Amino acid sequence: MMGRWGDVFGLGFGIEAWAFFLEAVFIAVYLYGWRRLKPWTHFWLGVPLPLAALMGAFGIIGANAWMNTPQGFTLDAAGRPVNVSVQQAVFTPMFGPQYWHFVVAMYLTAGYVVAGIYAVGWLRGRRDRYHKLGFCVPFTIAAVLTPLQFFLGDDIARQIFHKQPVKFAAAEIVWDTGTHVPEYLFGRLQPDGTVKGGLKISDLNSILAGFSRDTQVTGLTSVPAADRPTTAEATLAHWTFDIMAMIGSALILLALWYGWCWLRRRDLPRSRWFFRCAALAGAASVVTVECGWITTEVGRQPWIVYRNMRVSDAVTPTSAAALWTMFGIVVVVYVLVFGAFMGVVLRMSRRWQRADLGLVRPAADGPETDTPYGPRPELPAARAADAPSPQGPDASAPGSMR
Ligand code: HEM
Predict the structure, then answer these.
(1) Taking the model in full, what pTM does it have?
(2) pLDDT beneath 70, residues of the chain
(3) Where is this region: Disordered (predicted)?
(4) What does the domain layout of the chain look like in residue ranges?
(5) Is the CB of 68 under 6 A from ligand 1?
(6) For ligand 1, what atom is nearest to the CA of residue 252?
(7) What sign results for the dihedral spanned by CA atoms 389, 392, 396, 402?
């Protein structure tokens, strides 16, 4: 794939790698500068981090959107791409919709995951200002982005209806082209084009695609069987699409619950069920992101570059032999990195818990003892003149965050 198309769409991977290293550098500066830099210097050195992440997303979505709607080249007599226009190859028809849907997905997921951790703390009785801020800041960002994501999701679905009609047919399990097409919630597409199970809602697919029952929706049979996803692949793309839309809708209800309580009482919801749902929202967002990618990739089958290269032609016979070995190495490396990460995080959390219960003095180098932006401890009036240091609460006071 890269041998044939690398010159056309490889730029995105270059940008992504560059952004990745920038992120690594700025994360290191942020973590190691925690106590070594002045708070404002530390803060401003954190600002390029999300920008580098946006740049990484630009590269990777540029490459993926090109695979969905390839352009910016012509083919010579031997079928090789020539006359490459980098600008056209980066800004493909699917780039905008995919980029914004993905960026919002990432910020939203990060928000719900971080808030979810504090929601668990809240359920376990940690109701101090530190935990409240830890919950409110990420949850508010995620809650504001959720309805926006709903509109972006609706838009991206309509974009694939116009620009990748066979993928749309797979995601909505539409067999024959026609009008008055029903919407199926779940259900399994059969080899004869019928749908088993699921909930059928008459005409809704046509209405969602073009705001009218008379909107014509292209079916899977509009292309030969060899050029479209199999019925099993279409069913998978359909289920992941439905799960994504379902979880997206459930997250909106959660965001509304939060917004309603905040507007009425300027406070968090009191129900434990709210915090249980908030704790689940992080995991649910991660599942939704995976579902999004499965819809994108499985819905495009059998093409790796839509209408230009099949997945089966994407590797040369020599690299095909090494494919499973490479895949095995990648899996092992990721398991080790993830295992090490979880080990460090769990150790940090255990140290926190023991300090929290007063069983041990918080370690002088523990992150919980000197958060530059954390709430200041409440000082008795007599000590108020003794202003706290800009580095945060007194490191020697056990449990000072509570
Ligand atoms: C609520 C309604 C939603 C709808 C209708 C929707 C629709 C879609 C569609 C049609 C695609 C395939 C795009 C393509 O193949 O070009 C997609 C991809 C994706 N979706 Fe959603 N989505 C929704 C919510 C969400 C939410 C809440 C998240 C994450 C928390 C999410 C994350 C993703 C991701 C990561 C992708 C793959 C990358 C991309 O194409 O941008 N989606 N979505």
Answers:
(1) 0.86
(2) 351-402
(3) 361-402
(4) 1-92, 96-314
(5) yes
(6) 1
(7) positive
